[in-house]
Amino acid sequence: MTDPAPFPAHVAQVLDRDWKLLIAGESRPAEGGRTFAKLSPVTETVIAQVPDATPADVEAAVGAAHAARKGWRDTVATERAALVRRLADLVEEHGEELALLDSIDAGSPISNSRVDVTVAVAQLRLFAGLALELKGTTIPASNALHVTVREPVGVVARIVPYNHPLMFACKIGAPLVAGNPTVLKPPEAAPLSALRLGELAAGVFPPGVLSVVVGDGPAVPDALVRHPAVRRIGFIGSEPTGRAIQRAAAESGVKDVTLELGGKNAMVVFGDADLDAAAEGAVFGMNFTWSGQSCGSNSRLLVQRGVHDELVARIVELVAARHIGDPLAEWSEQGTMINRAQYEKSLRYIDIAVGEGAKVVVGGGRPSGPGFERGLYVEATVLTGVTPSARIAQEEVFGPVLSVIPFDTEDEAVEIANGVEFGLTASVWTRDLDRAHRVVREFEAGHTWVNGSSRHFPNVPFGGVKGSGVGREESLEELLSYTDLKAINIMFRS
């Protein structure tokens, strides 16, 4: 049973539907009519009965994709792009509905969910616009004609996480434009906007070109990764799951796998930095708006000792002024954690940090008072007295917890910044241009800023190194990664 009662009528309306998978161009239930209950982290009540797919559903989706492969490959790139652009128009047209679903389903503030819709539309249109970059080269290797061409890799599995449900679901743009039938596996923790996306897409693409399949647990993604017809896998999520996908892919074939994984990202602030800007950057870059549930969050703030107390005071003032509460309220700047497991994990890590000598200077637990009788809320939290080797400084919490670590010298800052298993993002704040260049070159991270944090830019590659993954997204590099490069040698008779 679902319980839409806690929501206003316009919100209950978007939930009032029979949720289905998209397979072979048709909306259909899971095999045997199986479903699982989806709870909202806002009300902690059941809001939907979601189709609970099985490996048989995966087989049907991949089979349809394989059957559609030749027709989609032979469709002119600009025509493929036009259909992706049509999907972008539909997402934009239904943007408020999709944003409401993400706020109800994942606890994201409605203002933030709307931004995710805007970014999703922009990403789809970016890849549609890059379609004519799917080109090869000519090589003057001899008096013959030597050319390269880019060809689709085949069936693609796109497996995405819960922290930006709709935005990440629209990561289908690059593989589709590149000519690959794609099976999208949304997160079971927040599947609703992706399932609605599947409904919208059903009338856009030929049958089998796009499928949307979700199940409760590891059976569906494991079947998808191991399927012999799946040649390319793009995953966003945690480092342990990424390693499991690499292992399963290797056990079942020779497959191309890209991974955008976790982070324990460092923001390094030197004593000569603009401290007001740095304080705002630290709060913005920590992604408190998503309750810290972002792989790109600068969850380690490294501050030169001489300005440590001053910068922390400014950050505490900014954090204390933020508004946490009902994600559907326009004033809300921070909603809930995705589920109880993540809620309890965040609180547990705060306790662990305090036990290791850290001090809570703002936040530190569940907010109290009216409006917080239910819902998985954790306050934006700032910890001082954190050492580089502490668990809170080494392990990804994926919650609203910022750890402040002091340093003295440039070399020490770089050593601390690189002293984790992750390498997704990093930033340096200083007015010294020479220092900025030195430090940013020394960072072991795939995406960096000087005097900035967290912002992404169109067609600028995003991705990590070390435990944060392999491959780059959001750019031409992502589009090309969904192709194989073929060399053609044309020999002339003399």
Write the layout of secondary structure elements.
Layout lengths: L8 H7 L5 E3 L2 E3 L6 E5 L6 E6 L3 H20 L2 H17 L1 H12 L3 H20 L8 E2 L5 E8 L2 E5 L5 H5 L3 H5 L4 E4 L6 H10 L8 E3 L6 H8 L3 E7 L2 H14 L3 E5 L5 E4 L5 H11 L14 E5 L3 H13 L19 H16 L3 E4 L18 E4 L6 H4 L6 E7 L2 H8 L4 E2 L1 E5 L3 H10 L4 E4 L14 E2 L2 E2 L5 H6 L1 E8 L4
Parallel strand pairs: 7-8, 7-10, 8-9, 10-11, 12-13, 12-18, 13-16, 15-16, 18-19
Antiparallel strand pairs: 1-2, 3-4, 5-6, 6-22, 11-21, 14-15, 17-20
Main pleated-sheet profile: 7 strands, mixed
Order of strands, main sheet, comes to 14-15-16-13-12-18-19
- Number of helices in the DSSP assignment: 17
What percentage of the residues does DSSP assign to strands (E)?
A: 15-25%
The radius of gyration is 23 Å
Structural class from helices and strands? alpha/beta
Low-confidence spans: none
Structural commentary:
It contains 17 helices and 22 strands. The protein has 494 residues and is α/β, with parallel strands linked by helices. The N and C termini lie far apart (78 Å).
Keywords:
single chain, 494 residues, alpha/beta, 7-stranded mixed beta sheet, 6-stranded mixed beta sheet, 22 strands, globular
Would you summarize the structure shown here?
This protein is an alpha/beta fold and 494 residues long.
